[in-house]
């Protein structure tokens, strides 16, 4: 592989006009496709294989036009002090608001709150339920605007009015977080390279790659039913790896220049060696993202595949456009250790020949491997302790900031009707095969009414055929509580027992039950996903490193860093530690998607650092250095680059901590902490300590496996052999110890 990529790098350097033209044409084509494609419809949302989804599908068949999974909104009214919602003036305002709401094009029904007894016992709080014919993710912005406008008109009449429900579900706005991340990345790159031009290449190519990826997603969004969250994930991951991969190759190019090579040769060598690491690092990210399909949530699968495509583009750009741009730059890109004149280049260093920070750190770790290893493992182990009490759930309006209307509506409903009123359960009774459907409906209602944590059970509402009915159950506890989850399981247990006796089927659905089912589905998929991703990456790393212990160490280190990051998430968002500093207003269960999402994203980024850092060690070892010296050599060349890449990623992810959305805040914090733990503790401390302890055993591979594995030559041994053939006397030794 090194030889092929070496030739590709030299070709791109020589034919830079042609290469640049190709990428500009692809960017233009993608942009035109995005601009001319039909507007993307709102993303459909389904969770195959869950009981809640099965109930929704059944309702669509038995209750045509009901739109069981359609969005709902609750417009909550509170009377001024000393008044009640049943007063004539307040009733007139509410009726006017209800009439205004009912005129919406996507609205199927608006319940008259006075006929539906939707007024609290003390008469101060009331609500109107609005039902739409599409889900919250499919709702048009005009419908949301109409909902907000109706609430505003009622406020102007003197009532306190707040709006809750999934009708206000929208893609979270992250503000200027990406811009801040790019700005910090630019500063770090300038410091790393000592050159504005060299720092600009990774940013430019990353933006081009993200532009092509996101534009392609936009062009295909309508045809493939891709939502806005798909392009958000693709841009975040694409920007991250795009900067990383270009950073690796530009850094290696400057190192090759420092060894005295001509620029075209240096570009070929950089792509042949660092480019090989980029290819395999990219493959691990693609595996992690495509592997999200094992969860069997269509939206998550599409997000993973789209992001994987953007990563593949980033790899191709790093291998071709970077050497082309280096060709354009010419002598303006300085060898490693030299800065541009603008940034202080040309000055005599104060201490010539002094080892860099990476060399000094690696030398210390090699001398004290046991102490560093124990300190690193114990530190991460301590951080991981809170993960033992991890509770998973999906956020509801109760986890929103108190500044939002959804949260205020949630609190008003809890005040007037009890916390469980915010998450009613819908029980669907399918008695089509039963001899006495009405008796089944009655029995189900009676049995549910006898369960703990139940406030209200409405009478069964049958369909026209009389073979299927719905029953609404209001729990005592809030939707995201463990008590409500237990109630859902209790109802399902009762339903199974009744169904076996009466030839019927009892299903529990609604947004609360759907959240519980999604959480369970994600939880069940975590271990298979881990096994798939880590297993495939383990095999891939065996091929890269031609070792069994190095990939095993990489996988175990990754698991340790993820557990530590999950522990930090639990401590902040579930236990409330440092919640004031992080502006976490409401603690509660950790988002169900967090563990599997963190595994996918962080695994890919962690393997980037592992591959780039350890391939330099492997390269030095293969070329004759002792194992301990190879560790130091790897750090001398790679530590600065990996540190810069990690700081950039932490900055990008940390920008999301400032979001008002608790889910986005949690993702940003979790990913930033995970990258910090993995890059600076696992890769920078535990990895060199383990390799120093293992010595030559680290690179052991059974002979039968060595013969069976393909030789991909990531270290560039083929290039070294070509050098020896061209210079048998060693007069032009190009690689210096």
Protein model, in words:
By secondary structure, the chain is an alpha+beta fold. 62% of the residues lie in helices and 7% in strands. It contains 22 helices and eleven strands. It has helices at 2-14, 16-36, 51-62, 88-102, 141-156, 177-193, 196-224, 228-258, 263-290, 298-329, 357-367, 369-384, 405-417, 437-449, 482-502, 511-545, 549-574, 594-622, 627-654, 662-694, 703-708, 717-726; strands spanning 72-78, 107-110, 125-132, 160-164, 392-393, 425-430, 454-457, 461-462, 468-475, 505-509, 590-591. The strands form three sheets. Strands 6, 7, 8, 9 and 10 form a five-stranded antiparallel β-sheet that branches. Strand 8 (461-462) and strand 9 (468-475) form a beta hairpin. Helix 1 (2-14) packs across helix 2 and helix 17 (549-574) runs antiparallel to helix 20 (662-694). The longest helix has 35 residues, at 511-545. The protein is elongated, with a radius of gyration of 30 Å. The two termini are 24 Å apart. Mean pLDDT is 82; it is low at 346-350 and 730-737.
């Amino acid at each position: 592989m090194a030889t092929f990529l070496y030739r590709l790098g030299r070709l791109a350097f020589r034919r830079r006009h042609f290469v640049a033209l190709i990428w500009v044409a692809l960017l233009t084509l993608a942009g035109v496709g995005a601009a001319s494609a039909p507007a993307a419809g709102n993303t459909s949302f389904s969770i195959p294989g869950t009981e809640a989804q099965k109930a929704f599908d059944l309702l669509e068949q038995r209750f045509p036009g009901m739109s069981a999974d359609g969005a709902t909104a609750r417009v909550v009214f509170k009377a001024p002090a000393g008044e009640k919602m049943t007063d004539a003036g307040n009733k007139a305002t509410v009726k006017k608001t209800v009439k205004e709401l009912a005129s919406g094009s996507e609205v199927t029904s608006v319940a008259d709150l006075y006929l539906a007894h939707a007024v609290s016992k003390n008469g101060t709080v009331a609500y109107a339920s609005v039902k739409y014919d599409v889900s919250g993710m499919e709702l048009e912005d005009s419908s949301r605007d109409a909902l907000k406008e109706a609430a505003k008109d009622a406020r102007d009449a003197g009532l306190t009015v707040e709006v809750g429900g999934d009708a206000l579900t929208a893609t979270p706005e992250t503000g200027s977080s990406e811009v801040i991340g790019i700005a910090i990345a630019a500063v770090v790159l300038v410091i790393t390279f000592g050159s504005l031009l060299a720092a600009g290449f990774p940013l430019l190519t990353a933006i081009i790659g993200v532009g092509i990826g996101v534009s392609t997603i936009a062009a295909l969004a309508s045809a493939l039913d891709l939502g806005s969250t798909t392009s958000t994930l693709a841009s975040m991951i694409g920007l991250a790896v795009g900067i990383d991969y270009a950073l690796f190759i530009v850094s290696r190019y400057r190192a090759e220049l420092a060894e005295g090579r001509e620029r075209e040769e240096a570009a070929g060598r950089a792509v042949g060696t660092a480019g090989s690491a980029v290819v395999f690092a990219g493959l691990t990210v693609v595996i992690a993202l495509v592997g999200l399909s094992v969860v069997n949530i269509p939206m998550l699968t599409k997000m993973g595949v789209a992001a994987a495509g953007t990563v593949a583009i980033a790899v191709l750009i790093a291998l071709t456009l970077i050497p082309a741009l280096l060709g354009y730059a010419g002598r303006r890109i300085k060898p490693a250790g030299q800065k541009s004149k603008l940034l202080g280049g040309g000055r005599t260093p104060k201490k010539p020949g002094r080892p860099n920070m990476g060399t000094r750190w690696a030398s210390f770790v090699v001398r004290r491997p046991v102490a560093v290893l124990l300190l690193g493992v114990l530190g991460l182990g301590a951080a991981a302790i809170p993960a033992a009490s991890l509770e998973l759930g999906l956020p509801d309006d109760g986890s929103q900031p108190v500044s939002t209307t959804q949260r205020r509506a949630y609190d008003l409903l809890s005040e007037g009707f009890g916390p469980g009123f915010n998450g009613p359960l819908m029980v669907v009774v399918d008695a089509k095969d039963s001899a006495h459907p009405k008796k089944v409906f009655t029995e189900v209602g009676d049995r549910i009414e006898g369960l703990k944590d139940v406030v209200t059970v409405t009478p069964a509402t049958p369909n026209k055929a009389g073979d299927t009915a719905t029953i609404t159950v209001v729990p005592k506890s809030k939707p995201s509580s463990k008590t409500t989850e237990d109630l859902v399981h209790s109802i399902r247990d009762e339903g199974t027992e009744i169904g076996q006796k009466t030839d019927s089927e009892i299903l529990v659905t609604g947004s609360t039950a759907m959240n519980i089912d999604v959480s369970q589905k994600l939880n069940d998929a975590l271990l298979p996903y881990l096994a798939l991703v880590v297993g495939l990456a383990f095999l891939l790393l065996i091929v890269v490193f031609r070792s069994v212990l190095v990939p095993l160490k990489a996988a175990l280190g990754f698991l340790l860093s993820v557990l530590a990051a999950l522990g930090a998430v639990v401590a902040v968002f579930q236990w409330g530690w440092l919640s004031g500093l992080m502006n976490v207003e409401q603690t509660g269960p950790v988002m169900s998607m967090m563990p599997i999402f963190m595994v996918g994203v962080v695994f890919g980024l962690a393997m980037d650092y592992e591959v780039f850092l350890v391939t330099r060690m492997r390269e030095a070892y293969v070329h004759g250095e002792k194992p301990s010296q190879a560790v130091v050599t790897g750090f001398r060349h790679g530590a600065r680059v990996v540190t810069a890449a990690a700081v950039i990623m932490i900055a990008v992810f940390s920008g999301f901590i400032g979001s008002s959305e608790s889910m986005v805040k949690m993702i940003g914090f979790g990913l930033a902490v995970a990258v910090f733990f993995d890059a600076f503790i696992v890769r920078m401390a535990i990895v060199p300590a383990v390799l120093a302890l293992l010595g030559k055993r680290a690179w052991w591979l059974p002979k039968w496996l060595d013969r069976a594995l393909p030789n991909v030559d990531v270290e560039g041994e083929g290039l070294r052999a070509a050098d020896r053939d061209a210079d048998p006397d060693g007069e032009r030794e190009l690689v210096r110890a």
